[in-house]
Description:
This protein has about 260 residues and is of the alpha/beta class. It has a single domain (about 1-255), classed as Phosphatidylinositol (PI) phosphodiesterase (TIM Barrel, Alpha-Beta Barrel). It has helices at about 1-20, 40-50, 85-90, 105-110, 130-145, 160-170, 185-190, 200-205, 205-215, 225-235, 245-255; strands spanning about 25, 55-60, 70, 75, 80, 115-120, 150-155, 175, 195, 215-220, 240. The strands form two sheets. It has an eight-stranded parallel barrel with strand order 1-2-6-7-8-9-10-11, surrounded by seven helices. The chain has a two-stranded antiparallel sheet with strand order 4-5. The protein is globular and about 65 Å long. Magnesium ion binds near residues 57, 59 and 121.
Amino acid sequence: MRHNTILFVLLMSVSFTAFSQNTNMITHRGAWKNTEAPQNSIASLRAAADQKAWGSEFDIHLTKDNILVVNHDRDFYGIDIATSTYEELLAKKHPNGENIPTAKEYLTEGKKHADLTLIYELKTSSQGEERTLESARKSMELVKELGLFDQTEFIAFSYAACLEFKKLDKDAKVHYLNGDKSPKEIKEAGLSGIDYNQQVFKDNPSWIREAKENGLATNVWTVNEEKDMRYFIKEGVDYITTDEPERLSRILKEGE
Ligand code: MG
């Protein structure tokens, strides 16, 4: 009987491994595509939390007068962010009535959703590398001031910014976006992971495995088609960043 019990437990754990998947969902610029919320608005962050995403990504720029704000493009409805003051940006609003969120407002909302990891993308400044690095320093300061260091992971296309985040705090989780460095290079630089365009992973089919062997996290963007979602789940990628969280959620639930 006892042996049967052990055998049963073994079989159960084998089948659990076979059917479970370890891929988590990150919403890209919040959950906006199938909701009323504008991209990178506080409403989109709330919608991501409502959908039980593992994490939610957002984009950060620094204004001329040193306020970190959340927006994807370099302009907020036509007003250039890097060369404008925060006050000047208030001339426009999102269609839902929100002002451009400051990083502080956005993160403060994020803190209310403690199960949601905040994927903080630092945008490269049009005003030069020093300005990008200044943005990184101000970002780290803000995240710590709000007590959000453990809930936040940093991502950037700027390699210099990634290295700066790690220099500021060796325990920071920092993932590189630009796709031009191998897992080995990222490991040697001391970064936490690779967060690459899906085409980069398809062109370098060994990189997910190599990243894992080097203890690096793997995140792929921006995966919106069902066949691509299934491909990356099968490849064992850690995180999929998507504009279609409802679709990915449904697929991930099949594996539960
Ligand atoms: Mg982004």
